[in-house]
Write the C-alpha cells for this entry.
Amino acid sequence: MPVFYFRAPEEKTAPGPEEQLQFDNLDQAVEHARYAVCDLASDFLPISPSDTITIEIHSQDGVVEAEVRLTLHVLRRAI
C-alpha cells in the first residue's frame, strides 16, 4: 500500500515518519486531505493572515503528488 505524507507549505521542515499515512491510491489520499483541510479551516482561517489553507500530498519519495486548497473569500456588497 502506498505511503503518503501531508504537509502545509508554511511548514519549514519536511514531513516526518510520524506524519505518514497509507492509502490504496492517490485518490484516497486526496479525499482524506479534503477532510483535513476543512478540519483545519475553523481553527486557522479566522486568525490567519492568509485566506487560504493548503495541504500538499507527498509521495514516499518526497514528490508533491497533489495539493488541496481551501480559500475564504469575503465579498462586500454595497447597500
Observations:
- Residues 26-44 form the longest helix (19 residues).
- The two ends are 55 Å apart (CA to CA).
- The chain has a mean pLDDT of 85.
